[in-house]
Amino acid sequence: MAGIILQYVSTLTLNLKHLGFPPLSDRIPSSLPSPESTVKASQVPNLFREPYILSGYRPVQQDWRCYLFSLFQRHNESLNVWTHVLAAPVLLLRWWANAGAVGYTLDTVSLPLLLFLLSSLTYLFLSVMAHLFHSHSEHAHYFFFFMDYTGVALYQYGCSLGHYFYTSEPSWRESHVGLSFLPASAFLAWLSCAACCFAKSRYRRPYPVQRKICQIIPNALAYLLGVSPVVHRLFTVSWTQEPSLLFHALQVASFLLSALFFSCPIPERFFAGHCDFVGQGHQIFHLFLSLCTVFQLEALFQDYARQRRTLVEVFGERQGGWACVALPALFVCCILTALLVTRHVSRRPGDKREKGE
């Protein structure tokens, strides 16, 4: 299904071109720099090449504005950018509709829901920045993807906040997992960011399997912990009585599919060179992750509306306040981690040789 949608977008773009509509990047005023034509994998440094993606690369060392204007250019990162560009207004529209329907007002009880939205928009924005600007240089490549990992960590903890305060059942909160849930979620979110930064800085292409293990294991642990109150509720509460459970099931299914396409280079592994612009596994990963976020928002709003009157009595204002303060603290820790690893990478002697590849 995802491949069909992505192919439709590509076909629409090609049809517009055949009808005489020039690409939007061609309409950039002549006084501004225009992106250069895309090149083959052999014409960019090894760092920027993706397995089984043979063309559609943007040349390095262009003016920064060229990469900004490449938002309207056809290249192998286009759909990675647009899947998250379009997800942001969808989230905002659904927030506006749900907030109006339930009479949302900002207070201690509703703050975790707002922080979930902000963490979602943050990871979408940083992902767009990474895929849009990383091709400028080696330093930019590392810096923007490290920021991308920071956004993912923030989103992980934002999900945990929503699941803990709105979705969890009393029996789960009284368990060993529930009692340590929020601090453990914050730590694993930071660990996933640090591990991804380390793996990207430590290993060079062709990437060994250890790199993927360093990325997947901490993120998998963070996800399993963060989704545990959802899974507990899916198996202990009647679905006929709780309409939010359908959206929770959809968000779990969407995430598992996104994880599959993130972990495996499919379908491009079997069609090398034919998925350069449309149909890459990473594009499908973006699509399913965006769907997961939208389903989460729907489920959390329904859970919030169901028990908003009892939240202060159950959790108390102090617990909610401290849990929410941990989000900006986590963001600062992840930013500092990313900057430290970026500084380490920029000082490595071997990186200067790679720039000339």
Explained architecture:
By secondary structure, the protein is an all-alpha fold. Helices cover 69% and strands 0% of the residues. The chain contains 13 helices and no strands.
Name the features.
disordered C terminus, 357 residues, 13 helices, mainly alpha
Strand/helix succession: HHHHHHHHHHHHH
Described by the principal axes of the CA atoms, the overall outline is: globular
What oligomeric state is this?
single chain
What value does the Rg take, in angstroms?
21 Å
Give the N-to-C terminal Cα separation: 38 Å
Instruction: Estimate what percentage of residues fall within beta strands.
Output: under 5%
Helix percent reads 55-70%
Mean pLDDT: 90
Q: From the helix content, strand content and strand pairing, which structural class follows?
A: mainly alpha
Q: Outline the biggest β-sheet.
A: none
The total strand number stands at 0
What's the quick description here?
By secondary structure, this protein is mostly helical. The chain contains 13 helices and no strands. It starts with a helix and ends with a helix.
Give the topology, please.
Blueprint: H1 2-18, H2 64-69, H3 78-102, H4 111-133, H5 138-167, H6 170-173, H7 176-179, H8 181-202, H9 209-236, H10 244-263, H11 281-307, H12 311-346, H13 349-354
Helix pairs in contact: 3-4, 3-11, 4-5, 4-11, 5-8, 5-9, 5-11, 5-12, 8-9, 8-12, 9-10, 10-11
